[in-house]
Amino acid sequence: MKKIIAGLFAVVLVAGVARADVGAPAPTAKDLEKVVEEVNYVETAKSGITLSGYVDVGYVYNFSSAPAGNVVRGGSEQITGGDFNTNAVKLVLEKALTDANEFQAGFRVDLIFGEDVRTVGNGIGGVGGAGTGTIADADSFFLEQAYVTFRVPYGNGIDLKVGKFVTWLGYEVIERPANLNITFGNIFFNAVPFFHTGISAEYAFNDIVDAGIAITNGVNNDTTAVTGAGGEDGYGIMAKINFTNPGGNANWYHAIYYGFGNDGVSGPDFGGTTFVYDTWGNWAPKAFDDKLLLGFNFNIGFNDTDISAATANTGNDWWAAALFAKYQFTDIFSLAGRAEYLTGDGTNSFIAGSGGAGSSDVWSWTLTAGFDLLENFLIRAEYRFDISSDFGAAVDDVYHTVAMQAVYTF
After folding, report:
1. CA-wise closest residue to 384 among 220, 219, 238, 179
2. How far is Cα 75 from Cα 119, in angstroms, rounded to an integer?
3. DSSP labels for 172-238?
4. 3-class SS of residue 22
5. What radius of gyration, in Å, describes the C-alpha atoms of the chain?
6. Percent of the chain at pLDDT above 90?
């Protein structure tokens, strides 16, 4: 194809020369060969820029009468009955920083297409509408990250990011294939932000301690949130510190977020003044030769939301805990489990779901079987069981969900 394009380019170029200078000597075969060679070796991209991503498809069946808006579920798991899903097609374009401690710059852009856009876009203005959370088809689009990064060679090197980046809070992430389970946990969907826009600085003191701090426009927005009748600019401060043991097989991570002025930001509801502390850890016991992974996540927070000047202050407080485990029985087969507890109360408790205001409790157990059939090809099957309280007469207190997933990574 490249030679065909080069040939066409040469023909057009020769024709242009002939029309521009009638009577001039016709280009020789050697001249044409030189043109073709130059076209073949035009540099089209900077070195070091990579394109990667994955395609994630699956099926979910919810046996319960789970209406839209039931926050015990994330994304398409809210739908009663069965549903084939294009969960996500993710593309990552990146120029990563090297290990050299010198002035250098790069960038990263993450694009997600598919039904998972509804999960991270549920109630978030700017993702398919002004916070409606109604995006449901595979044509949905979400700009997950878009930032410029550069390194200042001070000490061990300070890495700065400016733009839109994912949150530092939570054990689970937006990308399902990176999580131990197919469905999203309740902490992920209810108790942590998804993304921020602002500036961050990260620094590794040594192989054991690394930390970071960020100033953002709040949570889950590309700009300041001014959606309420008494809307005001939203701002937030986020910080993290991580400890890794000398053997590299365990870590303990801490992150906090404090924000104010995010009127009308919902799903998770982090409007008004919000404080969240999140900690998680991993441990891979060496006695199991990297086959066993154990993890935990603890989250606590509160917010005080003044939706408009005409509305009295409302708020939430919550805490949640989760345990994770995965065992790699063979190179192909693995089992992963998750157990979660989430409780919260408040005059507009998002944990209360369709049951209205008040306190609520949610327990959840998930078991996922994974099959790494090829290096880049993963199939998983899952069963999930949830029990909730105070969700109202129209909503089931017990939930059974099965899910399947196929992922190809490139």
Report:
1. 179
2. 4
3. S-S-GGGSSSSSPPHHHHHTS--EEEEEEEEEE-SSSEEEEEEEES-SS-SS--B-STT----EEEE
4. coil
5. 25
6. 50
Which residues lie closer than 8 Å to 85 by C-beta, 6 or more apart?
57, 58, 59, 60, 76, 114, 115, 138
Which residues lie across from 195 on neighbouring strands? 166
pTM of the complete model: 0.80
The residue type found at 376 is N
Place of tokens 């209360």: 352
DSSP string, 54-99: EEEEEEEEE-S---TT-TTS-GGGGSSEEEEEEEEEEEEEEE---S
Residue 288 sits at φ, ψ, to 5 deg, of -100, 10
- Quickly state the pLDDT bin for 168 (edges 50, 70, 90): very high
Q: How many other CB atoms are there within 10 angstroms of residue 226's CB atom?
A: 16
Query: What pLDDT shows up at residue 136?
Result: 46
Please write the tens of the pLDDT for every residue from 96-112.
Answer: 999 999 999 999 999 99
- Tell me the helices (H) and strands (E) count for the chain, helix number first: 4, 16
CA proximity to 346, closest of 193, 190, 184: 190
What is 321-348 written as a DSSP string?
EEEEEEEE-SSSEEEEEEEEEEEEE-TT
Give the N- to C-terminal CA distance of the chain in Å, as an integer.
23
Which of the four pLDDT bands, split at 50, 70 and 90, describes residue 395?
low
Which two three-digit tokens encode residue 285?
Answer: 């016991």
Which of helix, strand or coil describes residue 383? strand
Q: Which helix (H) or strand (E) holds 30?
A: helix 29-40
276's enclosing H/E stretch is: strand 273-283
Helix 2-20 with 29-40: angle, nearest 10 deg = 130
Phi, psi of 286 (to 5 degrees): -65, -20
d(CA 59, CA 367): 16
Q: Tokens for 304? A: 């005080």
Q: How far apart (Å, rounded) are the C-alpha atoms in residues 79 and 68?
A: 7
